[in-house]
Amino acid sequence: METLPAWDPSLSVGNAELDEQHKLLLALNQRAADLLNDKAGNHIRREFRHLLNEIIDLAEVHFAAEERILALNGCPTLAEHKAEHYQFIELLAELIYQSMLKDLKSKKIAKLLSDYIDHHFRETDMGCREYMRDRAA
Ligand SMILES: [Fe+2]
Ligand SMILES: [Fe+2]
Asked: What's the average model confidence in pLDDT over 39-64?
């Protein structure tokens, strides 16, 4: 079974709202990976698609919140950071499209999601940690 890295305090960006959203995104991605491990069928594809839509909704809320805070704090790599966020939404949209057309390549998809999240949370988000603090806090 493909297991995504669980959230742990070493992933904290020092902002409670963003940390909470990261936890939820990891949990939803783990659910997607678990679902793909079940034997495929039409209902799995439908359920997977619903889950991907949930991930997109949450990711959009999270990315908007994160980008707003990064902008407020003058993060110098905001443009590159935004581009990575956009790539994730594009990846999810592509997976939704694929799930309507053909059988999903479970392992490949679980790995794509896991690799993105792992890279983005551990490197891109952590690299901007000092610009993630909420000014109100
Ligand atoms: Fe980010
Ligand atoms: Fe993030």
From this structure: 87
